[in-house]
Amino acid sequence: MSKSLSRFSVSLPTALLKDLDQMVQQKGYTNRSLAIADMIRDGLVSHRQQTGEGEVAGTVTLLFDHHRSHVQETLTRMQHDHLHQVISTFHVHLNHDNCLEVIVVRGEARLVKKLADRLIAAKGVKHGKLTITSVGLDLPA
Ligand code: NI
Questions:
Q1: Can you name the residues that pair with 101 across neighbouring β-strands?
Q2: What is the arithmetic mean of pLDDT over 85-114?
Q3: Residue 101 C-alpha to ligand 1 middle, in angstroms?
């Protein structure tokens, strides 16, 4: 697929542009257009997550103490309730008490967010975080 480029001019405070160029260099971008395009994509993904429109992919990371009664059963039941949003689950026994579970999710943003909220709020979960990205189809390179 061919990519067409559009040029547009942006006015920025001089100090802000200087900081941008410094960040571009530190992050290893070959030019500032590539860095700005990444920032725009990040903004679009975040906007779609908040508006709940379209399909997203992501991960839910959960930290919990497996000794807490029924926590593992609860998390498994919730994932069965959202069968179509769960792609894969990865479980790591961190130490004697704690487990880390990473659940790869995809689907309508609203449903993915709902599942993540339920998992993170489950009794026994010490810390949880949803990371959302795009499925890539609706995000120009
Ligand atoms: Ni474990």
A1: 62, 91
A2: 95
A3: 8
Q: Is this model's pTM higher than 0.85 or not?
A: no
Q: Which domain holds residue 93?
A: 55-134
3-class secondary-structure state, position 61: strand
Cα(67) to centroid(ligand 1), Å: 10
Taking the centre of ligand 1 as the mean of its atom positions, its distance from the CA of residue 97, in whole angstroms, is: 8
In a shared domain, residues 44 and 78: no
Spatial CB neighbours of 74, under 8 Å, sequence gap ≥ 6: 122, 123, 124
50 alpha carbon – ligand 1 mean position (Å): 32
User: What contacts 43, CB < 8 A, 6 or more positions away?
Assistant: none
Cβ pair 75, 119 in contact under 8 A: yes
Mean pLDDT of the chain: 92
Domain count, the chain: 2
Largest CA distance in the chain: 58
Give the residue-averaged pLDDT of 92-103.
96
Q: Over range 87-99, report the average pLDDT.
A: 96
Could you tell me if 24 and 61 lie in one domain? no
Residues 19 and 63 in one domain: no
